[in-house]
Amino acid sequence: MNKKSNIAIVLAAGKGSRMKSEIEKQFLVLGGKPLLYYSLKTFEESEIIDQVIVVTNADRITYVKEEIVEKYHLNKVRAVIKGGKERYLSVWEGLQYLDNQKEKGNVFIHDSARALVSEEILERAYQGVKEFKACAVGMPTKDTVKIVNDQGFVEHTPKRSLVWNVQTPQVFTMDIAYEAYKRLIKEKVEEVTDDAMVVETMLKLPIKLIEGSYENFKITTPEDLIMAENLLKK
Ligand code: CTP
Ligand code: MG
Prior knowledge:
By secondary structure, the chain is an alpha/beta fold. Helices cover 35% and strands 24% of the residues. The strands form 3 sheets. Strands 5-4-1-6-10-7-11 form a 7-stranded mixed sheet, with helices on both faces. A two-stranded antiparallel sheet has the order 2-3. Strand 8 and strand 9 form a beta hairpin. Helix 3 packs across helix 5 and helix 5 crosses helix 6. It is globular and about 50 Å long. The termini are far apart. The relative contact order is 0.17. The model has no long low-confidence stretch (mean pLDDT 96). It binds cytidine-5'-triphosphate and magnesium ion.
């Protein structure tokens, strides 16, 4: 068999400050289970994904292992490791772990806050990485987007059909992801909000955007919980 392995790095090391809850949003209980469970379950059942690395807060590692991974028999989870202060530092922890393990293949970087990722999305993303080596899932924006100046006045209005909201997973060959992040860390660039941006700016490689879904939104603020809870019931 020459199937290369597909590894997911699932990010769960944030604080969830915009959620304004006591506990980090990835551990809020929705439909009886912690939010992090849902994306891990999708990866567990996926035909595409071979193994999963969970990156979480240092003081949550035992909880994640015992109360989520073991409790729900998420057997593809190979490691639960500690994250960093910013999202990109958590990704870097995951990539270094995989590099130490000499893992090759493709890496699916995913926000656990996107609990409603689906197998169909993973399949499209896998096709994307096979063909283009670097891709991210997203959806065309529903709202018109304005670019403003520092004073808040509109400077221009991009053509709506060309504006996408980017989601996760963002999927790259291991080599590309590792090299891009290695340069980012070396050059101490800090203003990065997603993985595609790291690859765009550090390696100047083209990134293909792949259709995600509107359900694959990032649970960020309290009203998102109501929508997520309803969708998870389906
Ligand atoms: N994340 C992470 N490590 C960090 C910051 C974020 O692993 N240092 C993860 C989050 O757990 C989340 C995903 O990255 O699943 C996307 O980040 P975001 O939605 O911004 O989550 P938080 O940073 O936790 O939320 P906020 O920005 O509101 O504080
Ligand atoms: Mg954040």
